[in-house]
Design a protein that fits this description.
With 195 residues, the chain is mainly β. The protein has two helices and 13 strands. The strands form four sheets. Strands 7, 8, 9, 11 and 12 form a five-stranded antiparallel beta sheet that branches. Strand 11 and strand 12 form a beta hairpin. The longest helix is centred in the N-terminal third of the chain and has 11 residues, at 40-50. The protein is elongated. The termini are far apart.
Length: 195
């Protein structure tokens, strides 16, 4: 990532030392510490690189393990949600003798359903529970049109999109980052027999 001189904010650091003033132009001394100009944005990116965001798995309900067929059914409404932490912070990271405050929030999740279709939901979505009436659809959900069985399961891939707010040296901003989690989901067809 590139920042212009105006965006850099004029912070200068001696590697291994404290912030320094911009050196006056003079002949270079090979024994002097190397001086590198670093912007608050670059300091924030270094701190974000150290932040441990969770790879949120796709929550899918109703869970196929609770029915007698052990599979999701074609045409049946499935609920999708971020199954894991959706907020990290506030935390403080030390970079180049400065403290960076970070606060990360999950803003949306994109679900690759494994059958060629994708669903994107704002926020973490709402978790399915047994209290949900049978067949009720969610605002964040999906219905498969084709089975994965008998060939195997669909791999559902959830890409969680995070907004990470940062504050350092009186400046602030937001950095975005994605994390990926997966889950296997067997999907089959239920047929009604009439006698």
């Amino acid at each position: 990532m590139y920042f212009s001189d105006a965006e850099r904010g004029g912070c200068t650091f001696a590697i291994g030392g404290a912030p320094t003033k911009k050196p006056a132009a003079k002949k270079s001394d090979p024994k002097a510490p190397q001086v590198v100009q670093v912007s608050p944005q670059e300091i924030a990116l270094m701190a974000v690189a150290e932040l441990q965001l969770p790879a949120v798995k796709p929550g899918i309900g109703p869970d196929p393990s609770i029915n007698r067929w052990k599979m999701a059914a074609v045409g049946y409404p499935l609920w999708l949600w971020a199954d894991g932490p959706t907020h990290v912070g506030p935390v403080s990271q030390r970079v180049a003798n400065l403290y960076v405050s970070l606060d990360a929030n999950l803003t949306s999740v994109s679900y690759d359903m494994g059958d060629g279709h994708t669903v994107t939901c704002d926020g973490p979505g709402k978790k399915w529970t047994r209290a949900v009436p049978a067949g009720k659809a969610s605002s964040c959900g999906y219905r498969y049109q084709k089975p994965s069985l008998p060939k195997g399961s669909y791999t559902v891939r959830a890409t969680s999109h995070w907004a990470i707010s940062w504050v350092v040296g009186g400046q602030s901003g937001v950095v975005t980052m994605d994390q990926v989690g997966t889950q296997q989901l067997p999907v089959g067809e239920l047929q009604v027999l009439i006698r």
